[in-house]
Amino acid sequence: MKNDITPEMLALMNEELRPAQPKRPVAPAGRAQPSELLQNLMGNMPSETPAEVAKLKSALEVLSSDVGRGVGSFYDGAGQPVPDYWQATLWAIAGLGWSCGKDIARDWSKECHNRYDDAGFEKAWRDYKPGHPNPVGIGSLYKRAMQAGWHSQATPEQAVPNASRYQLLGSTHMQALPPLIWRVKGVLPAEGLAALFGPSASGKSFLALDMAAAIALGSLWFGCRTHPTTVVYVALEGEGGFKNRVTAWEREKAAPIPPALNFVLQPFKITEQQDIVDLASVVPKGSVIFIDTLNRSAPMADENSSKDMGEILEGAKRLQLAICGLVVLVHHTGKDTTKGMRGHSSLFAALDGAIQVERSVVGRAWGVAKAKDGEDGGKFPFKLKLHVLGKDADGDEITSCTVERDHGLLFQPAEPKGPAQKEALRVIRSAVNASADTGLAGASSSTKCLRLEVAVTVVIQTLTTIKANKRSNRARKLIQDLLTGEHLLSGLEGDDGWVWLPS
């Protein structure tokens, strides 16, 4: 807890620490005695632990917030309780220096709907002065609560077992639990935290908008059933072009954007409590919120920092709990797209669902990278359809895109994983094209074939950074991976193995 120590207070502390003198000055009336001042400044404040937070909340349960503002004290000069102690309660909590203190004080104040006012609360909280010569302390709050019938909670070491708190569930109970509710069946749950991520220019924002519209309509999305609800799309990146995206969608579907789909184009920070509260206040319960993109919602955060990512996740979870629905974060991959989402690994671990968008030389596709109680994997190819919407003031075309399934890519194998596989396939492809052998080991009569050992040799030549005695095994492993991924086909002709390219 940070304290503003004035010269007067420092003098009092020095006096407290100085050896006893025959004629020690007495503190003026109404001022805290030095020992009390030292106690406040030097520590002895309860730490922000779950037990202490619970203790404070339980004390507030017996203190009514439907009281007058007061002058910042629980007791008058004669030590008698004063009837108006709202200001004193706020300052006692503020004096703890807890990160959650303000939220606790606000929630308690809101219990009195007739008196609560945001502006008044903020002013009262700001008026707290850590350097006040006689600050109201948390001890006075607890004393007042005990006079109202409150009994201090036991510390964890003194806790009395409560055998009725936890219920042991057997098979019958588990079978009776409600099933998981899907928002996009097999892909995203109705409640939780999810992400849709991919590299720049992969089409992830167009895909997110297409999914948002499908959820708002309750229509099939890439063959997946959706359950309709209100959708709010917070467009923080490329917001100027969203009008064109909406226009393109409406032209493609020959229908207006569904009424259940709404957009927010104002700035929003997921790490700002006030932004979360304000956004949640206009979003119906059970809705889906898309935040596009995560980076723009936390512009000053270091995504690779566990601390910063923890604050981002805390904000996202607060928003999700406030709407009792689903929050979808549109996010980028890193420079190495094979490593998934950019930033600290705690992000992926916290998700209840994740969609990965890929773009390669053969096209675009999305897949389920993580599903809550569902099956990961599977690829859904798609393409962007260009729409010319008109011309601007300079006579240039105004364009945007919509998403449609790419049936032509449904049966094509995915790109090889990692640079080593890609390089191995490149040199093998070149060697196959240069081969004079055709129609061997089960390949069609016109298909060029390459002896397996030749393929191993050309791949070994690319492995210059690996120890010489390990290159052969590494080359064979790469070729096996290419065969497993159906980037190569193989067969036997006598005792010789042959490989060739799929047609």
Describe the protein's topology.
Layout: H1 7-17, H2 34-41, H3 50-60, H4 86-94, H5 101-110, H6 118-126, H7 138-147, H8 171-176, E1 182-184, E2 188-189, E3 192-198, H9 204-217, E4 231-235, H10 242-253, E5 261-264, H11 273-280, E6 288-292, H12 294-297, H13 306-323, E7 326-332, H14 346-350, E8 353-360, E9 363-371, E10 377-391, E11 397-405, H15 418-434, E12 450-451, H16 452-460, H17 471-484, E13 489-493, E14 496-500
Parallel strand pairs: 3-7, 3-8, 4-5, 4-6, 6-7
Antiparallel strand pairs: 1-2, 8-9, 9-10, 10-11, 12-14, 13-14
- Overall 3D geometry? elongated
pLDDT < 50 stretches? 16-43
> Kindly state the mean pLDDT as a whole number?
86
Would you report the number of β strands?
14
When the domains are counted, the total is 3
| Number of DSSP helical runs | 17
CATH architecture of the largest domain: 3-Layer(aba) Sandwich
Strand share of the residues?
15-25%
Structure description:
The protein is an alpha/beta fold. The chain folds into three domains: 45-155, no CATH class; 182-409, Rossmann fold, CATH 3.40.50.300; 418-500, Arc Repressor Mutant, subunit A (Orthogonal Bundle). It has helices at residues 7-17, 34-41, 50-60, 86-94, 101-110, 118-126, 138-147, 171-176, 204-217, 242-253, 273-280, 294-297, 306-323, 346-350, 418-434, 452-460, 471-484; strands spanning 182-184, 188-189, 192-198, 231-235, 261-264, 288-292, 326-332, 353-360, 363-371, 377-391, 397-405, 450-451, 489-493, 496-500. The strands form three sheets. The protein has a nine-stranded mixed beta sheet, sandwiched between helices. It has a three-stranded antiparallel beta sheet with strand order 12-14-13. A two-stranded antiparallel ribbon has the order 1-2. The N and C termini lie far apart (70 Å).
